[in-house]
Amino acid sequence: MRASFLLIVLTFLYLGNLFVVARYRPWRSPAAELVDDGLVLAGALHMHTRYSDGSGDTQSLARAASKAGLDFIVITDHNTHAGYDEAGYYGDVLVLVGEERTTDAGHMLVIGARVEGGRDPGTVARLTAQGGGIAAIAHPYGRRSWEGPVPEDVRAYEVVNADNEWRDESPLTLLSSLAALPVLRDAPWNRMIARDDRAWATFDSLSILRTLVPLASVDAHAAIEIGFGKLLPFPGYESLFRGIRTHVSLASPRTGDFETDRALLLAALQEGRVHLAYDGLGETTGFRFAATPDSTGLTLSVPFAKEVITRLYRDGALWREVEGGWHGAAPPGLYRAEVYQERTRLIPWIYSGPVRIGESLPRP
Ligand SMILES: [Zn+2]
Ligand SMILES: [Zn+2]
Questions:
Q1: What is the distance between the alpha carbons of residues 33 and 47, in angstroms, rounded to a whole number?
Q2: At a CB cut-off of 8 Å and minimum separation 6, what does 37 contact?
C-alpha cells in the first residue's frame, strides 16, 4: 500500500518535471517560407576524439554528424596532430582536423593549418595566420579562461561554448533536465542556454578594431570520468551536434572534392560569413543578415516572424530592437543581429556574424 502510494507520488513528480522541461521543446520551422540556397552549410566546431580526451574516433564523430544532419565538423584535439591525416569526406560530411593548443594564456583553436610554435599564444596565432588558417580563442570565460591580451593574429573568438552552458546551472536543474532526457530529446539542453555577456562584450570591443569572427563550439568529448579508468559517453556527440551549430555561407556550391570544399569553407569562415545558432530550439534555415547591394542598409530574414525578438547591435552597442525580420537604412558601422525566442524568458537562438556598412574607421 505504502509502496504504491510512493509510486503514484513519484509518477506525478516525474510528469510535472516533464511538463516544466517541455516548455523548451523545439519550434517547428514554417518550412514553406524558408529559402535554402544550398550555400549555407551547418557544422559543429571544436570537439575531441580518443587522440586526446574524447571517447569517439574520427569515423564515429562523422557518423554522429551525419545523423544530426550536419554538413561539416572541425575536430580539435588537445596539443596533437595525430588525427590530421584522417581529415576528408566521410559520406556527405566534410571532416576538418585542427588542434586545440594549450598556450600560456589559455586554449587556442588552430583551424586550417598545421603549426608548431610551442605555448606562446602570439607565435601560435601568427604561424596559423601565415599557414592560411584561423586561430581562435577557446572558451575565453570558461573553466580555463583566457588570461591576457588577445594576440593580433587571432581571427576568431568563441562566444558560445557548450561546456559553459550547463556548468552554471543548479544541481536541481541539472537533475531535472537529466531525468527528462529519455523522453524529451532537445528540450533539456535548450533550457540551459544563456547569453555569455562577458564573451560578447570582449568580442564587440575587439571586433571594432580588427576583423574577428564569432564562433559557436560544442567542445564535445562524450566522456565523463566515473572512476576506475572508465568513461561514460555523455553528453553524446550527436545531441551536441543537433543543438549548437556554426552555419557557414559558401561563395559557391560545394563540389564534393575535399580540398576544394575545405578551401571554400575556410574562406567563408575567414570572411566571417557565419551565423551561430542553437538549432535545438528550431531549425534556422532561411536566416539571413546582410548589407543591401548598395551597402547603405541592412536586410534581416528570420525563420519565424512571431514570438521572435531581434536585437541589432552597431559598433557593440544596442542600436535597435525589432520583432522578427527587418530591413532599412543603416549609417556606417559594424552590425550584428541577435535573435531571441520569446518563451518563459527570452532565449538566445541565433547570432549573426558581423556585417560592415560603409568605411567606418576604427575608434581610437
Ligand atoms: Zn579547452
Ligand atoms: Zn576543448
A1: 33
A2: none
CA of 103 to the centre of ligand 2 (A): 13
For residue range 289-301, list pLDDT tens digits in order: 999 999 999 999 9
Residue 351 pLDDT exceeds 90: yes
CA of 190 to the centre of ligand 2 (A): 21
Is the C-alpha dihedral spanning 324, 327, 333, 335 positive or negative? Answer: positive
Distance of CA 117 from the midpoint of ligand 2 (Å): 19
> What's the gap in Å between 191 CA and the centre of ligand 2?
22
* Backbone torsion region of residue 338, taken as left when φ is above 0, otherwise alpha when ψ lies between -120 and 50, otherwise beta: beta
Domain count, the chain: 2
Q: What is the value of pTM for the model shown?
A: 0.92
Distance 260 CA to ligand 2 centre (A): 27
| 47 Cα–ligand 2 center, Å | 6
What confidence score (pLDDT) does residue 18 get? 85
In the three-class reduction of DSSP (H, G, I as helix; E, B as strand; rest coil), residue 159 is classed as strand
Minimum-distance ligand to the CA of 145?
1
In the chain, pLDDT over 70 holds for what percent of residues?
A: 96
CATH of the domain at 115: 3.20.20.140
Least-confidence region, from 175-184, 251-260, 295-304: 175-184
> What domain range is 343 assigned to?
286-364
Domain termination residue (choose one: 229, 253, 281): 281
